[in-house]
Amino acid sequence: MGALHEGHLSLVHRARALAGPNGTVAVSIFVNPTQFGPQEDFSRYPRPLQQDMALCREAGVDLLYLPEAEAFYAPDHSTWVDESLLSGGLCGAARPGHFRGVCTVVAKLFNLLAPDLAVFGKKDAQQLAIIRRMVRDLDFQIKIVGAETHRERDGLAMSSRNRYLQPDERAQAPVLRRALLEARAAAKKGGSGPAKLRARVVKTVQSAPLARIDYVEAVDAVTLGKPTRQTDKLLIAVAVFFGKTRLIDNLEVALK
What we know:
The chain is an alpha/beta fold.
């Protein structure tokens, strides 16, 4: 959605490496109105287009696609792509309709650009899982590649929304990464099930006075549902407000 940073550019570099010297790397920049809720930050979402274009040129992007919402969605647009299983919890519970907007815009972009592969960041783990499911279920002949989360030196996951943070909020925001790493360390020692790991994360996040938890969940990393005895790997996912800025992060934890 623009406001590019090193995290976005790491996806470009991954795509370039996968495409090879003779491949074409395309980037779409589109602040998609259909994935914002009525109380969310669509109008104030940063749009530094000239800066983004320069970064894409420097990163070796071959094609930059910049659709306008008025042309992208017909005035009487009435067709949606809606994944119904993986999108119910986590950010889907907190942001109704968000993933319907994500699936619809991604499906349209795939149809328009017809890529061989597409790279998405693991920071948005639920989004990545949903897009993989959509591609499988709708028979898109596209390989979906997940790229590791790019982080600041203090561990904060890079996000376009980080620029909204006030200095005191920014100073406390790395508590998200610290909480997740503590949970993974506890899991490696054994004896910590999903409920205890979640409680540990909550306690650490709450140690930051400015943090306001939206959710902390420990779910099956494959189904994004409640862990079972067959669960081999957990996804611990957090969404936390600092002021009006909502940040997300996650970490996979092996149970077996």
